[in-house]
């Protein structure tokens, strides 16, 4: 099978890029021909004022993307086009190009941007079930996109227009949600249930991906931002706790650095960035990875990556985490944004660290059965086959 992968890269690399790369590697490993079409949001940042205005005018539908995709299809002749992120340069124009060239489209749903401009869904986000347009317009007052009324208004207008035109319902052959929880949210927002399939994130298998000897530290690896819940983790950490290694970058970096200093946490090590070859050993030897998100994560890549090394995960009791983590078997859950609950669960883990060692083989087996390249390929190619045979 020949597959064209389409992805609009973010300015700052994140989990979506890792997920895209994993799918490409898995498909190639199984003998499929893969070509890619990437656009980079950094194009907007680097463009002149006139260029920025032009990008703004094409926010809803990009002529460049439309022409590029038609050209790609003409030369590569894919059996199927698989889109990941399409904002803000790819745009739904990709769907029209595929329709004109009679090529089916699969769209992965990595976040909730189809009905939340920021892409982030919180427990207190005002949502109108069955009415994505009303949900979108409610977000303007909250400045949910980049803390700007204007930018939120523009994005809401674009998304609302496509919901009104039934773009998502009629121009996409299948959607891939990362969890049953995420599927439920999209179906409640009017995506056809029969078109939404579930395939968790996976990581492409590496020969050295195996259970490693356990180190003497716990780890937070990810974006340093409000929705990730990093503040409550640092507030909960005590001076007599084991070492916590925090690895990541983001808008709260300086605030977290000051909080560590204010609380005199000499047992918290903050590292802004580690190259991949240095990061993987840190992850593999962690006693436990902590995921304290306060928003509904679709499927954090760090969980699949931790499981691939047999590392248990301690996470907030929220949304998809309840599907992914089996309490006491592959990790533990604590109440969202609750310092007391975080401490209680941490101390439970600290007091029985032998359990961490015992769990590692169970966690690795969970990775092999659900998130390995073999499992992911079987799931993905099954979705492709259903689309091709529809």
List keywords for this structure.
390 residues; alpha/beta; Rossmann fold; 6-stranded parallel beta sheet; 17 helices
Textual characterization of the structure:
The longest helix is centred in the C-terminal third of the chain and has 19 residues, at 353-371. The chain has helices at 15-29, 42-46, 49-57, 63-76, 93-100, 132-138, 149-164, 167-170, 180-188, 230-236, 253-262, 276-285, 301-307, 321-324, 339-350, 353-371, 373-389, and strands spanning 2-9, 33-40, 80-83, 105-109, 174-177, 196-198, 217-221, 243-247, 268-271, 289-291, 313-316, 331-334. With 390 residues, the chain is of the alpha/beta class. The protein folds into two domains: 2-203 and 373-389, Rossmann fold, CATH 3.40.50; 217-371, Glycogen Phosphorylase B (Rossmann fold), CATH 3.40.50.2000. The relative contact order is 0.11. Helix content is 44%, strand content 15%. The two termini are 16 Å apart.
Please write out the topology.
Layout: E1 2-9, H1 15-29, E2 33-40, H2 42-46, H3 49-57, H4 63-76, E3 80-83, H5 93-100, E4 105-109, H6 132-138, H7 149-164, H8 167-170, E5 174-177, H9 180-188, E6 196-198, E7 217-221, H10 230-236, E8 243-247, H11 253-262, E9 268-271, H12 276-285, E10 289-291, H13 301-307, E11 313-316, H14 321-324, E12 331-334, H15 339-350, H16 353-371, H17 373-389
Parallel strand pairs: 1-2, 1-3, 3-4, 4-5, 5-6, 7-8, 8-9, 10-11, 11-12
Helix pairs in contact: 1-17, 4-5, 6-7, 10-15, 16-17
Unreliable segments of 5+ consecutive residues: none
Overall residue-averaged pLDDT value: 92
The CATH architecture name of the largest domain reads 3-Layer(aba) Sandwich
Total of domains: 2
As an assembly, this protein is single chain
Through-space gap between termini: 16 Å
What order do the strands of the largest sheet run in, or round the barrel if closed?
A: 2-1-3-4-5-6
Overall body shape: globular
Q: Could you name the CATH topology of the largest domain?
A: Rossmann fold
Largest sheet: 6 strands, parallel
Q: Strand-residue fraction?
A: 5-15%
CATH superfamily of the largest domain: Glycogen Phosphorylase B
Kindly state the number of beta strands.
12
**Helical amount among residues, as a percent range?**
40-55%
CATH class of the largest domain: Alpha Beta
Tell me the radius of gyration.
21 Å
Indicate the structural class. alpha/beta
The number of helices is 17
List the helices and strands in order: EHEHHHEHEHHHEHEEHEHEHEHEHEHHH
């Amino acid at each position: 099978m020949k597959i064209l992968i389409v992805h609009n890269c973010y300015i700052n690399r994140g989990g979506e890029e890792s997920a895209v790369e994993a799918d490409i590697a898995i498909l190639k490993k199984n003998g499929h021909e893969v070509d890619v079409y990437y656009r980079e949001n950094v194009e907007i940042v680097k463009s002149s004022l006139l260029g920025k205005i032009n990008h703004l005018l094409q926010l809803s539908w990009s002529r460049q993307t439309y022409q590029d995709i038609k050209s790609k299809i003409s030369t590569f002749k894919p059996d199927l086009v698989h889109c990941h992120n399409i904002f803000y340069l790819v745009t739904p124009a990709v769907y029209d190009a595929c329709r004109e060239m009679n090529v089916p489209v699969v769209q992965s749903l990595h976040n909730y941007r189809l009905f939340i401009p920021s892409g982030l869904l919180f427990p207190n986000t005002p949502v109108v079930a069955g009415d994505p347009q009303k949900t979108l317009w409610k977000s303007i007052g909250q400045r949910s996109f980049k803390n700007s009324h204007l930018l939120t208004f523009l994005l809401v207008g674009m998304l609302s227009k496509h919901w009104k035109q039934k773009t998502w319902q009629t121009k996409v052959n299948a959607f891939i949600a990362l969890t049953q929880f995420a599927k439920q949210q999209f179906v409640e927002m009017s995506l056809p249930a029969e078109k939404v399939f579930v395939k968790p994130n996976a990581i492409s298998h590496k020969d050295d991906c195996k259970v490693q000897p356990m180190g003497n530290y716990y780890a937070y690896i990810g974006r340093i931002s409000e929705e990730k819940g990093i503040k409550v983790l640092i507030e909960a950490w005590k001076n007599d706790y084991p070492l916590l290694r925090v690895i990541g970058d983001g808008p709260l970096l300086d605030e977290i650095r000051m909080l560590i200093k204010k609380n005199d946490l000499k047992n918290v090590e903050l590292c802004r960035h580690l190259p991949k070859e240095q990061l993987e050993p840190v992850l593999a030897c962690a006693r436990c990875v902590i995921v304290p998100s306060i928003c509904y994560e679709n499927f954090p890549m760090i969980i699949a990556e931790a499981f691939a090394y047999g590392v248990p995960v301690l996470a907030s009791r929220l949304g998809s985490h309840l599907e992914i983590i089996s309490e006491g078997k592959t990790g533990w859950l604590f109440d969202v944004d609750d310092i007391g609950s975080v401490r209680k669960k941490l101390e439970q883990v600290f007091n029985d660290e032998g359990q961490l060692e015992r769990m590692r083989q169970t966690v690795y087996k969970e990775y092999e059965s659900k998130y390995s390249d073999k499992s992911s390929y079987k799931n993905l190619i099954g979705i492709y086959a259903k689309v091709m045979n529809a």
